[in-house]
Amino acid sequence: MSVERPGHANAGESVVLRFAPSPTGRLHLGHALSALINLDLARRLGGRLLVRIEDTDLTRCRSQYVDGILEDLAWLGVQSDGPVLRQSDQLDVYASSARRLEAMGLLYRCYATRQEVLAVARDGFTDPDGAPLYPGRGAVLPPAETERRQQQGAPYAMRLDMAKAVARALALGGASALAYAELDASLTPRVVVADPARWGDVVLERKDIPASYHLAVVVDDARQGISHVVRGEDLAAATDIHRVLQVLLGLPVPLYRHHALIRDASGRKLAKRDADTSLAELRRRGLAPRDVRRLVGLEA
Q: Is the entire prediction scored with pTM above 0.70?
């Protein structure tokens, strides 16, 4: 699989899934589970599976890991049914979407540092990922200090004014604007209504990360014609943010499925630092792709 610029789904190809790892390390069994679930569902529905490299985090992503990911996937039998999109090649596209939100009055500059935010964050108030909830526009720095840092050209993040964003989304789409369909393992849908407010004013752009995961993923899902987003349950809450961005940017709504994760003996989800579960290590030990399917519970 070569990394190329993105293609677009043809009108007749209505079922498109994607597997979208970040190149911050080698793939492990948890990635294998998600990739294989996506592959199996794409084949079951007669659709396509695309591979996307989500590397907007320029501080942590490495090109050598991209090669390793593609090597691991090829060994596993997961091939992209189209060009492999690499997000670091698409930063201008995400910036354009951010400017649209800014023109709506929904983005603002935040000059507060991480330490300053932590210092004023309210105890017990966290977002779904467990991070301290940002206390809101103007709650960390007084206006005069914000103005001073702006004049000095200090680095800043672009935050989404979530209260305004939700109000705008509801005005555009009505009471059901933030609803989406969540599929279970049998593909039976249930309606879920997103609750973006619980995330607070999320960051969509940073100096060191030109586009957040949230902004890039909704833009790419739309550009690539993704019909089914199948990913781990640890990303289920992130759909809150994705739905409000989809409404604001006029993007289509995929069907969602969030599958269970593979966890270690302590109940912690696998991470790239868990070298003993990496596909490269399992391959070195002599395991075959069918053994990986057995290990992740897809075959007896």
A: yes
